[in-house]
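User: Can you recover a sequence for this backbone? Please restate the input before giving your answer.

Assistant: Of course. Working from this structure:
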């Protein structure tokens, strides 16, 4: 009845389609089921992977999403291979072709992939975090962001520096923010005519009066060296990490003021005096002279 209403060409196509559906109908239904199940499983694989990685405190959120996406696409890849195998496609040769294509892409993008690999290692081992003050390969700055490809730094004068992760992973990294406390070493020079014991006592009073200097480890104040023109006094103290720079500036200013008030001479570094004809007449050492000293 239906065939009498259709044109002859449509009837011919229908007669060819029905045997095909009878022969491959089960394969089509199986492939459709595999696609639906694979898509569902890939979404679950991503969720399960991220949930598992969240239990590890050292795994960054960026890595959680990265590995979750890898798990999802792996499940989708196996789903596609299973669907093709259901229709009799030789997946072994297809895998070989995909492997060769992947190798070619990997060789072409080896620089980018090396940055990704380094980024993964940095995000796993976390030698630094955003906000840390670091020095990487001679570049000093504060970490702004760490991604899979690059590390962004901000210098003290507010200049942005983008460093490829492969360069970061291959360099020695100094992390100034890792520990809660830091040591501050300062050297003050006094002349040989000055009273070194008096200078050490003055420094001791200043250090004791500074509340940001830690009592443990105990401060060290001592004569560290005898140079050609001065007696070198070492001041070694410990502070909280965030207080180091301000304590440094405060000590330098306060000790200089106390030395001036106490008449303790600070020698000037030797300099070369040149004659009118340009010949050097040898080093001359000058000392600071104060009224009444």
């Amino acid at each position: 009845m239906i065939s009498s209403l259709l044109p002859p060409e449509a009837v011919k196509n229908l007669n060819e389609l029905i045997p095909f559906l009878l022969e491959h109908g089960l394969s089509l239904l199986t492939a459709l089921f595999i696609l639906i199940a694979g898509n569902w499983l890939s979404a679950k694989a991503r969720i399960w992977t991220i949930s598992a990685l969240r239990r590890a405190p050292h795994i960054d959120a960026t890595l959680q999403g990265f590995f979750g996406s890898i798990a999802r696409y792996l499940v989708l890849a196996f789903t596609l291979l299973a669907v093709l195998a259901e229709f009799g496609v030789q997946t072994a040769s297809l895998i070989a072709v995909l492997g060769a294509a992947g190798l070619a892409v990997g060789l072409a993008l080896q620089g980018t992939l090396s940055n990704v690999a380094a980024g993964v290692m940095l995000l796993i081992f976390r030698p630094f975090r955003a906000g840390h003050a670091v020095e990487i390969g001679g570049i000093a700055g504060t970490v702004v962001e760490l991604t899979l490809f690059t590390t962004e730094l901000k210098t003290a004068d507010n200049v942005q520096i983008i460093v490829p992760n492969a360069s970061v992973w291959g360099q020695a990294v100094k992390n100034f923010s890792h520990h809660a406390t830091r040591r501050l070493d300062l050297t003050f020079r006094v002349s040989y005519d000055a009273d070194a014991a008096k200078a050490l006592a003055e420094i001791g009073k200043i250090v004791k009066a500074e509340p940001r200097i830690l009592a443990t480890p105990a401060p060290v104040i001592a004569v560290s060296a005898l140079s050609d023109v001065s007696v070198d006094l070492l001041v070694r103290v410990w502070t909280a990490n965030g207080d180091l720079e301000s304590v440094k500036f405060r000590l330098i200013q306060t000790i200089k003021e106390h030395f001036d008030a106490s008449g303790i001479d600070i020698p000037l570094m030797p300099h070369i005096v040149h004659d009118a004809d340009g010949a050097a007449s040898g080093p001359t050492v000058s000392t600071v002279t104060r009224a009444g000293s």
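That completes the design. Residues 3 and 12 are 10 Å apart (CA to CA).
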